[in-house]
From TrEMBL:
Pfam families: Glycos_transf_2. SUPFAM superfamilies: Nucleotide-diphospho-sugar transferases. It comes from Candidatus Curtissbacteria bacterium RIFCSPLOWO2_02_FULL_40_13b. This is Glycosyltransferase 2-like domain-containing protein. InterPro entries: Glyco_trans_2-like, Nucleotide-diphossugar_trans. Residues 9-159 form the Glycosyltransferase 2-like domain. It comes from the Bacteria.
């Protein structure tokens, strides 16, 4: 390993833990332009299948089997506490890393010494169904909005599918274990602890879109509830920053409508449906909720 390379750890909390997890681990192990690193898989109370565990260990992953379920934030905190490298990359069990994603994340930290948190570019895996193509429209609208709001320094581009931190900063973050939308919380907590966020377009990580309306509804309402949730933990100035410019999102929808009027129109209808049917879905929720299954089959 070259002396100027940053040491890093990749950590994956998992509850579902199917064979998709092995594909995720392989995509990480096959990263180009990086030295040796530590890969941690922390199991959240739901035992891995023997074959999955065997394949992970064959890849060199450290499998930490927690017998009691603690939830996503509990496992994130555990992974941070176990990390001694300069950088920790937190990801999930249903993504695929581009072979240059990690190298580009590390390069962002090296080029910008004040950066403490990096968000990867999350792209959908190639759409195979009509429903996936509709959902892709929403992903594009979200990205356009995030990229053009406050020069990309906002919670929309901080996806928990892949977030990287300077480990010294990560260890300063205080994360309540009952938080549902940990992605946004981590973004604002990093900011509250005088950290600097950077979204890196060249650090691409792929995630499969929800395959049905039920799972899309669940994901959508999780984020819609987020502002209400964060108000319990954040001061007023940070909560105020949660509201993005509506005109910017309208512009994003118009851009997509001109390219794909059918998919965009259907996505608008689905969005209206999620706001009606999903009202208060997470109000009073605990740290545990049913895991999406369709997105895990990568």
């Amino acid at each position: 390993m070259k002396k100027d390379n940053l040491t890093f750890t990749v950590a994956i909390p998992t509850y579902y833990g199917g064979f998709g997890l092995v594909k995720t681990a392989k995509s990480i192990i096959n990263s180009k332009g990086v030295g040796k690193f530590r890969l941690i898989v922390s199991v959240d109370g739901n035992p891995l299948q023997k074959e999955v565990k065997a394949q992970l260990k064959k890849l060199g992953a450290e499998v930490i089997e927690n017998k009691k379920r603690g939830g996503q934030v509990t496992r994130i905190k555990q992974n941070i506490s176990l990390t001694n490298s300069e950088i920790i990359i937190l990801t999930q069990d249903d993504v695929l890393f581009d072979k240059h994603a990690i190298a580009n994340i590390l390069n962002a930290f090296k080029k910008n010494p004040n950066v403490t948190m990096v968000g990867a570019r999350i792209l959908p895996t190639p759409a195979k169904t009509f429903f996936e193509k509709i959902i892709e429209t929403g992903i594009k609208v979200n990205y356009f909005t995030g990229k053009n709001w406050k020069n990309g320094d906002n919670y929309l581009l901080a996806s928990g599918r892949c977030l990287a931190f300077k480990t010294t900063q990560a260890k300063k973050l205080s994360i309540p274990e009952e938080v549902i939308n940990a992605d946004a919380f981590l973004y604002f907590e990093n900011k509250r602890k005088n950290g600097q966020f950077l979204a890196v377009d060249t650090a691409v990580v792929y995630n499969k879109s929800p395959q049905n309306l039920k799972e899309h509804l669940k994901q959508s309402k999780k984020f819609q509830y987020s502002q209400e949730e964060l108000s319990k933990y954040m001061d007023a100035s940070l909560v105020k920053e949660y509201s993005f410019p509506k005109a910017l999102m309208v512009r994003a929808f118009i851009n997509e409508f001109l390219k794909n009027p059918v998919y965009t129109g259907l996505y608008v209808l689905i969005s209206i449906y999620t706001r009606i049917m999903g009202k208060n879905m997470y109000s009073g929720a605990t740290r545990f909720w049913s895991t999406d299954v369709s997105t895990k089959k990568i």
